[in-house]
From TrEMBL:
Every Aconitase/3-isopropylmalate dehydratase large subunit alpha/beta/alpha domain range: 410-894
NCBIfam families per record: PRK09238.1
Entry keyword annotation includes Acyltransferase: no
Name this polypeptide is given: Bifunctional aconitate hydratase 2/2-methylisocitrate dehydratase
Domain Aconitase B HEAT-like: start-end pairs: 6-162
Length: 923
């Protein structure tokens, strides 16, 4: 009873916050609730029935197991509840999606009571979340001639779970809501600083955009009860920056429809649009929920009489409005003609949003049901020894005679599942591929766990080479929220089969290493496909895709992912890098030169960047591949030379061995298996049996870009341009400026060296600069705080062994202590060096923040509004992104340095150097 009293108390507390009761996922509480339902005189009986029916999380939660068992009792007549008839009990089981509900339905379907068995069989025909243990039972019963099992298998072979669903409606009426002007980052829809609440969907929903915006959406819904609200990024792209499922969940919560009347706060079918479309990884997340994402193209480049683009004084294209989508505009989406209308007026073709595959996602209420449904149909057809009937839209297959393969095309063809032997596919083809490496990060991991529970998965797919659950996004502050959430997450993922940053048993030291760095190390084959729960899953070995928490769950459960083979843009280099420049400047210059070459068009957006940068090891090349998320690329591939790749793999082996030495390997020896695979790959390269991956000479690219290193003559800075009169130009990563732009006078309030964009070399540069400054000026005096967060503990250990950490300690005023981690985020900074715990720190924005209104100079990737620094009433916070040397000098001076000051400060320091490969050199 105490458990239920605690729940009542929590309900009262949530009511004060305007929230409904928290959904139930625990067996103990639901067992008490069931006992109260059985007690006809219990004062809480009526509300207990409501909690049981409407407020219990399905899937493989312990509560779902208790619920399924009680529903079985009701169906068998062992318990009687007048409010829940056996027929209603079957309906409730049909909405529980899998796991214990499937087990119960199979018990009933294969039981002795013919009438019950038939009804259970009918429900099972609608289910798709079956795993090997479930299908093995059906297969055995089928072999034994069980008539219900035969019926179910035949139904699965015909995919009746899909064909009998209602068709997608022809016309969808929408009313528009402008969520913002310019690119809309997922931070607006699901702020990083609210990451702790993501698994509590209703609570997290309160943080979407602003309370005012939420009220405006509700007002639109009241005015237009027959229409869906479409969220729009005016003059921008919707959902840039992250692969955040919580962002789509929030949009669905406010504007979508409930997935099931018996599953609380799980909404589907959101509709979103953007002038420049939807960010690729965000669009994948929209597909997960059966939603619609529209490329509106409602602002177009203005042309003169000859058809030439008219430009302004900054040489940027002038845009004119093709049609209005102002808030409150009523539009019609026609899924048959695949057009967008305003009344009878046709506005634009939207066929990209309604491909046959996307139509299936919409019909099924999300992409998971299609993925599992296809696997189930294939299995059933195999049992029946028949060809699976063509029910689902055939995958689009493009093969161009005589055309070579890009690097990503080669990887997809190697890992493809279900294509005819010998068939070669090119970009645009729809492919199911096996996934080699999977990463789950800690602020989305709780949602991934929920997704795994909802799809009834209990163990990692055996075809996944390795998977890792990080602790980096909650590393800097071990507060009450982290203490409540993270141990629970680590236990779930460890039990599921992942290598976890924190040991649920407490045997090994907590490793809060940045997830992208760990994934970069455990990727031991450049032919690998990696899926990770973060947009910066951009490895310098293999091809890696940032994904939402659901797609990560799907990859963990099935070992597969489905997507079209993306087009590629080839990036090569010519010229010579200046001695005083850092490789980060090459990265920024790549984006700047690309935009200049293509007249402001970002040819990287939604495509693979195939970067020929083979003379840099994986650690250093990661600086480029990591930044490609900010270039809005779908992913990136690093083309490496044989010797360099071998060196990278040896480094990776050493770091995996350290993880093993710390006790992080599991009983299946996943980490040792990765080392063995790395040894095999090294042997293949050395023997020339299988050299490092390269594209074919006659591969076809969407575009090719040659970056001129000779043009990079001073440090480059990505500027959020917070005061641009054109709001749509603010907070993008496309404003790249030379250091001289700031004239050595722009005040810098705080510096940050950390996040995934730095490596060991950056820490050594920092140490050497501090020594140089002391030699030049007699002391090191900071005029602005400098926060330093190394990416990994390995780096800290190596710096200690090489003497650099001692240098950093000498100049620091704070050093992290794992024995007594910070329990609260820092709110004020002194002008000194802070040596923080390895992890994301300021870059994530969910724990540490700069002071409001600050100008921050950072090595990180994030310059979105409110991420690293929030605004004050009178001053906008801004996060400028630059190289490590620029950040260091900016904090010493308290302002941006001049080019002369910069070159003097880095003299004699070995910066991250790069020279184009002699094999790939562009003449």
């Amino acid at each position: 009873m105490n458990t239920y009293n605690d729940y009542i108390k929590e309900i009262a507390e949530r009511k004060d916050q305007g929230l409904h009761p928290k959904p139930i996922d625990g067996a103990e509480l639901l067992s008490v609730i069931i006992a109260q339902i059985k007690d006809l005189d219990n004062e809480y009986r009526e509300e207990s029935i409501k909690h049981f029916i409407y407020n219990t999380i399905p899937g493989t939660t312990s509560a779902a197991g208790v619920k399924a068992k009680f529903l079985k009792e009701i169906i068998l007549g062992e318990s009687e509840v007048k409010e829940i008839t056996p027929a209603f009990a079957f309906e409730l089981l049909s909405h529980m999606k899998g796991g214990p509900s499937i087990e119960v339905l199979l018990d009933l379907a294969l039981g002795d009571d013919t009438a019950i068995a038939k009804e259970a069989g009918n429900v099972l025909k609608t289910q798709v979340y079956l795993y090997e243990a479930d299908t093995d039972r059906l297969k055995e019963a089928f072999k034994n001639g069980n008539p219900i099992a035969i019926e179910i298998i035949k139904s699965y072979a015909q995919a009746e779970f899909f064909t009998k669903l209602p068709e997608v409606v022809e016309e969808i009426k929408v009313v528009t809501f402008i969520a913002g002007e310019g690119d809309i980052s997922t931070d607006l829809l699901s702020p990083g600083n609210q990451a702790h609440s993501r698994s509590d969907r209703e609570l997290h929903g309160q943080c979407m955009i602003t309370p005012k915006a939420q009220e405006e959406i509700k007002a639109l819904q009241a005015q237009h009860p027959d229409k869906s609200v479409m969220l729009i990024a005016e003059k921008g792209t919707m959902g840039v920056g992250s692969s955040r499922m919580s962002g789509v969940n929030n949009v669905a919560l406010w504007t979508g429809k409930q997935a099931s009347p018996y599953i609380p706060f799980v909404n589907i079918a959101p509709i979103v649009g953007g002038t420049n479309g939807i960010s690729p990884i965000f669009l994948t997340t929209v597909d997960v929920t059966g939603g619609i994402g529209l490329d509106l193209q409602n602002w177009v480049k203005k042309l003169d009489a000859e058809g030439n683009v008219i430009r302004n004084e900054n040489n940027e294209p002038i845009l004119e409005e093709a049609y209005s989508v102002a808030t409150g505009t009523v539009l019609t989406i026609n899924t048959k003609t695949k057009k967008l209308y305003n009344g009878d007026k046709e506005l634009i073709d939207i066929s990209k949003a309604f491909t046959p595959q996307k139509m299936e996602f919409i019909k099924a209420g999300g992409s998971y049901a299609i993925v599992f449904g296809k696997k189930l149909q294939t299995l059933a057809a195999k049992i029946l020894e028949i060809e699976a009937p063509l029910v689902f839209a055939p995958s689009k297959e493009i093969s161009v005679e005589g055309q070579g393969l890009t690097a990503v095309e080669k990887i997809f063809n190697k890992n493809a599942v279900g294509i005819a032997p010998g068939k070669v596919l090119h970009a645009g083809s729809d492919v199911r591929v096996e996934v080699n490496i999977v990463g789950s990060q800690d602020t989305t991991g709780l949602m991934t766990a929920q997704e795994l529970e909802s799809m009834a998965a209990t163990v990692i797919s055996p075809i996944v080479d390795g998977a890792y659950q990080s602790g980096c996004h909650t590393a800097s502050v071990w507060d009450k929220k982290a203490q409540a959430n993270i141990p629970k997450l680590m236990k779930f993922m460890n039990d599921f089969g992942l290598i976890t940053a924190r040991d649920p048993k407490g045997v090994y030291h907590a490793m809060t290493d940045v997830i992208h760095k760990v994934l970069n190390d455990i990727t031991i084959d450049e032919w690998a496909i990696i899926i990770g729960g973060d947009s910066h899953t951009r490895m310098s070995k293999g091809v890696a895709f940032g994904a939402d928490s659901g797609t990560v769950a799907l990859a963990l459960a099935t070992g597969e992912a489905s997507m079209p083979i993306p087009e590629s843009v080839k990036v090569t280099f010519k010229g010579e890098m200046k001695d005083y420049m850092d490789f980060r400047d090459v990265v920024h210059a790549t984006q700047s030169q690309m935009l200049k070459k293509f007249g402001g068009e970002n040819v990287f957006q939604g495509r693979i960047i195939e970067v020929h940068i083979g003379t840099l090891t994986a650690d250093q090349a990661f600086t480029f591949t990591d930044w490609t998320a900010e270039m809005k690329a779908k992913a990136s591939i690093c083309i490496s030379e044989d010797d360099t790749l071998i060196e990278s793999l040896e480094i990776a082996k050493g770091r995996i061995q350290i993880m093993i030495n710390k006790g992080m390997d599991n009983e299946k020896q996943v980490l040792q298996g990765l080392i063995n695979k790395a040894d095999k790959r090294i042997a293949e390269i050395k023997s020339a049996e299988k050299p490092a991956l390269t594209p074919d000479a006659n591969a076809k690219y969407y575009a090719e870009v040659v970056i001129d290193l000779d043009q990079i003559i001073e440090p480059m800075i990505a500027d959020p341009d917070v005061n641009n009169v054109d709001v749509s130009k603010r907070y993008t990563h496309d404003t790249i400026r030379p250091l001289s732009f700031y004239g050595g006078v722009k005040k810098v309030d705080l510096g940050f060296i950390g996040s995934c964009m730095v490596h060991k070399g950056d820490m050594k540069i920092l140490a050497q600069m501090l020594k140089n400054i002391e030699e030049q000026y007699g002391k090191v005096e900071f005029k602005a705080p400098l926060v330093v967060a190394p990416p990994t503990y390995n780096i800290v250990d190596e710096l200690k062994a090489e003497g650099d950490w001692e240098v950093l300690q000498k100049y620091s005023g704070f050093e992290f202590n794992d024995s007594a981690p910070k329990g609260a985020a820092r709110t004020e900074y002194e002008n000194m060096l802070y040596l923080e715990r390895p992890g994301c720190n300021l870059c994530m924005g969910n724990q540490e923040k700069a002071a409001k209104g600050d100008t921050v100079m950072a090595t990180s990737t994030r310059l979105f509004q409110g991420r690293v620094v929030e605004d004050t009433e009178g001053k906008k916070g801004e996060s400028l992104l630059s190289s490590t040397p620029v950040v260091v000098l900016s904090t010493i001076l308290g302002r941006t340095p001049t080019l002369a000051e910069y070159t003097a400060a880095v003299e004699g320091i070995s910066l991250t150097r790069f020279a184009p490969s002699h094999k790939l050199l562009v003449m």
